[in-house]
Protein 1
Amino acid sequence: MKILKYLMGASLLLPFVVSARPMVELPPKHQPTSFAIVVDQTTWQHAAAQLRAYRDALVRDGLAAYILADEWHTPEQVRGELLRLKKRCERRSPLEGVVFVGDIPIAMVRNAQHLTTAFKMNEETFPVVESSVPSDRYYDCPDLQFDLMARDTINPLLSYFTLRCDAPQRLVPAFYSGRIRYPEGMGGDKYEAIARYLEKVVHERARTERLEEVTTYAGDGYNSDCLVCWMDEQIAMAENFPLTQGREADRLRQLNFRMDKEMKFQLFDELRRDPIDLMLFNEHGSPDKQHVGTYSEPDCMAGIYARLRSSYTFSRYYELRKGDKADVKGLQQDFARRYGVTERFFDAADREEEKAPAADPSVITSDELFRIAPQPRCVLLNACYNGSFHQPRYIAGGYIFSDGRTVVAQGNTVNVLQDRWTIEMVGLLSHGVRVGQYNRLIATLEGHIIGDPAFRFRPVVDNRLSQEIVLRRNDNAYWRALTTESPYADVRSLALRMLADSGAVSPEELLRVMQTERFATTRTEALRLLSLSGDEEMFARGVRLALEDRYELLRRHAATYAWQLGREDLVQEVADAWVRDSESQRVAYILQKGLLLMPDSVADAALKRAVKQWGGGSETLYDDLRSRLASSREMKRQDHERLLRGTSLRLRIAALRSMRNNTYHEYVGDLLDVLSNAGETDELRRTTAECLGWFVHTPRRSEVVLRCRRLLKTLHRKSSLHDELQQTILRLEGKHTSIK
């Protein structure tokens, strides 16, 4: 395989042959649902007392907790034991969750970028360790099927798997999961650190409180740059966390990067505040940093120089990630041409990189988290890479292994989409639902729980909702009653979700919810479920309705769905919303993309009518808006030209990769012609098939599936194009719900 030369230390090996079965400690008491603690043998030897104390705390909280200890060598071995345990528990006490403690093998997943929110790294050109997604969906989604590609000989915990093209192309976690893995780059004895963490968890579980104190932080350069977006966060917080709506000012604090030039230190004060229960970050991130600072324009030459040096070191870092394809010299020549810098600039910048960095007021590091001892019991990190548990200093690990009260964090192992619905279902934490259950409901390939996934807050009012999610999964009467009887937004949203996963709610009912529901977050859930219903007509009606909703996030999602649908009968609504709702920056940005993906003449006519109705017929406004489309249309024209008449395979494939994010529905016919042309190279045809897999809601979806099926019959079953066509068909036909 071509990719093997980028393994950087990984090599193809035969799977380990492991004949012995793990040590299993049975639960000391029967409970309605079960839980598994999977621990490596050495950690078990060092922290058996703490693991048993943790197990006993879980039992007191209603979980029949098993302990599985072994010298785990491969992900396959762990997965096999979990599936055996799941089968054993099915009738008497269903397995609802698992936690991996210590050095448990890590699956690095490939050929599954459509199951992430934003990860699009080229798997052919970047090193395999960079272009794979560390994901425990390998364990908690047993219907996914993988082929082993390689073991990593540098890091024996890592194994590389490709998602099979003929297997399900959706995430359906059968149980939730979490990781308790010490970031070894922080130094110290990792076994002592894990033991101390488990003692902290047992202590915090003994004094479980209701979720009353919440703080959010909106970072610079993120969706919070839009003040309408940040302002409407208040709507969701009120619906999600009812106990924060008391008279006390500190119960809900919404911090924003605009409040101080060095928000980092204000965040430190907030993280030290003892009563805080939940902290939500919306920001940029990297494995060992939270990028929390403001990025105002420099006002002196020293600032300009520092900004330019930072830009160079950042670009150099990403260039080096390309392995033997890296061209640092070419990068330097480009910088010299653009900015007039000399060789001395690069020498000085490279020398600075070798020094120990000074404290940076724009980032929070894992070292600093150890020093400040964060107090929030739960931290949600809506940022790229902060949950990269395979990295030696990952941020989420800094939270839970500090001396503070934090016992669980949620983070992403790779980059994440800015405009994803980061707080979908998060209000369930107010109702005693376990953090792992919440994460399971919103599953992505990259999103993980770090710490105790079975942790939960005491509910607002006593209930058994945490158990009912497992035990009454198919009790449609129970969930239907909650859709109207529950006074809480996310309980109603959960009920809709459970009904949809059982096929017990119709698209017409979901549209009616959007028309009548008083809770904005529940209306948003109804639209999301409509997008999965397969009824494109009813879905389009929901999008039209949502484009005029008062809740900014719902309008934002409707804008995204509108360009994914690509229906010309929606273009006028998109144009109207773009002119009418220009102050909502993220919505307007997505609506502009929606118009770009439509045929130019159709979009221009709709824009002219929109300006006449909503902009007073101003020719200046029309010309301004149309000019914004013009530059992007040039990229659209170039992509089309390169695909059909490109002089090199590299340029044609680059055009196809661009169309994964920009689904030009008018070019579907051209894509199908390239795909069907036996005179084209296999690589180009395979990339075209993969590109078409991103057109999940195109009006020509049935035509794409039909053409793919016809072509499939003419190909050898073992060909790469055959595999890619299978995957595309499954993606376009599948309903990608996360739970059944």
Protein 2
Amino acid sequence: MGGQRVKILQLVTVAVFAVIILRLFYIQVIDSEYKDKASNNVLRYEVQYPPRGEIYDRNGEFLVQSREVYDLMVVPRDLKEFDTLMMCAIVGITPDKLKAELEKAYRYSRRVPSVVIKHLPKEDKLKLDERNFPGFYTVYRTIRSYPRKIGGNLLGYVGEVDRPALERDGYYRSGDYIGKSGMELAYEKTLRGEKGVKVNMVDVHGMAQGSYADGIYDTLPTAGLAVTSTIDAALQALAEELLDGKVGSVVAIEPSTGEILVMASSPSYDPDDMVGREIGRNYNSLIGNPRNPLFNRSVQARYPPGSTFKVINGLIGMQEGVLTPDMKYSCSMGYTVGRGVKCHSHWPPLNLVDAVQTSCNAYFCYVMRNILDNRKYSNIKEAMEVWNDYVQSFGFGTRLGSDFIGEQPGFVPDAAYYDKKYNGRWNSLTVISLSIGQGELGCSPLQMANLAATIANRGHYYIPHVVKEIHGDQEIDERFSQKQFTKVDPEHFEPIVEGMYRAVHIPGGTAQRVRVDGLDICGKTGTAQNPHGADHSTFMCFAPRENPRIAVSVYIENGGFGATIAAPIASLLIEQYLNGEITRQYLVDQVKSMKVNYPYYDRQQNR
């Protein structure tokens, strides 16, 4: 019995050794997987970065291009003695800077590549290739260049990926670049492409000996897709030229499509300043500027709309049946009930059209009270909620849903807001400032341009967007081609359009100086109160009156009356876009000479 057990143990032992021997034979002779893994210590995996997609304007002109550069990398464990002065002379840094970068690389990892110098031109890369610098190698990258040098806030910039982005998206690795703002951020996944990898054999000195396994494990990068924007480069450049020396925004939209023709914010910055080795220094300089050039006022600012908002109250009044176009109200230099609302000098309005033409404050105070005191509602709170719903249907108090990251919703107060503010004790006189676009109302220049487009379309709009076409298989989001309807019937828009037309073309109108023969501009001025200084100048318009091709909103902080600065800027943009030239050079010179004082920003700087 004992001998049988011994034989069984012997057989088991032989079987185990046989399995081990067969497994070793398979690993070492037949299967190359472990052999390949064992050779990892002489392989270098180099990321192949794709060219970033280019951005064109609507007419095919380059707004953003990609330029070839190289990053100098180091693998600390592969370093040998080298001519440091020669390297420093080639790449343009001091020996102390090189030493600091190498020490940083050692602290990070001896085996993992680290960046020593970014954005070397091709000439420097070729000089490095001619010398023997063990442990160093270069990686192809692309950086942005801007032929027009316009649209800093619109186009955005590209920078090194930060930790939150690394944690959010597994595509990125430390040292990768990512869109940080503007279109670069909004269309990052479209523009970035797909990385590849190249596996190189490296000798004991860290010098590349060629591709591993004839490149069968290499993958090629896939270039990012090019994008055609909706922007008109020439019109964008003109807007930025006219905004120089001012704080504010210009937005222009094609009403029939919602395509954004211009998105200019001032002050802005030269987009080339956010490229290359000086990006950190330039970024800190921009951040330290009290006028905040990195702040895109077109979509992020919250301004009181001022008198441009009166047209919405007129439309709501007609839809609610408390106003007819021929309804008359008098004006004695303002609305005199309660604390009253002042008005400028003009003849007493005869009807709604005249009220829009002369921008009468008193007329729209009457209209607003009729809306809120409408007896078909049980109380003012219910009426206020109805009013709020109407206003939001025009795109106010909510994000429009554009393809632009950072779009802010603005603010439209509701009954709950006033209940909290006034402890439930308020009435239509309490909120009378809403009638003329003041009080708690806040909106972005994009929303005001969208209002102009909505009136141009007689009651509907398309969600504003900045991309016209993505080159390749990607489709533009279908929501941009869907009509968004207001809660006001189309027929009610005609008196408003007539009033806006007369404001430009008939004596007594508030915007006569922007008239251009043959263009049929329809416009509405606004002078928005500003607690920090002079009133803001604002103007919205569209042209031509029938089959409109462009809608514009201009907002200039501390600019004074709407007709002073904002209206001429809009008029010049429309003339350029519709006629292809500007005939009023004197007006261009006047606008460019208007430099606005900003005591609020200056005080911030001096603190």
